[in-house]
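Worked example

This section walks through a single chain of length 103. The input is the sequence exactly as stored; nothing has been trimmed or padded.
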Amino acid sequence: MYAVIKTGAKQHKVTEGDVLSVEKLAGNKGDEVEFNEVLLVSDDKEIKVGTPFVKGAKVVGQIVAQKKGPKLTVYHMKRRKGFHKKTGHRQNLTSMKITKITI
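Given that input, the structure is written out below as tokens.
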């Protein structure tokens, strides 16, 4: 059984037991989070596609860690002007373990 969920303006295909990194969610380690924006649910027999969300479907996950992603370098330059600027950032992420998918 798998599902496609929407979180943080992104879509993730998840199954029970998966560990994935999503944009930062409020909560501490061990807290449970429910994802109600389920776009698609599939079990062994059928596939349910939402318009835009599947009614009654939800995915429950448990927060494993609050962490930061890899460092990204952002470089801006305007040619023939002598202008260049180099900055970067690290995105705040939440590691989630998917515990239950219900239809």
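What to look for: Residues 40 and 50 are 6 Å apart (CA to CA).
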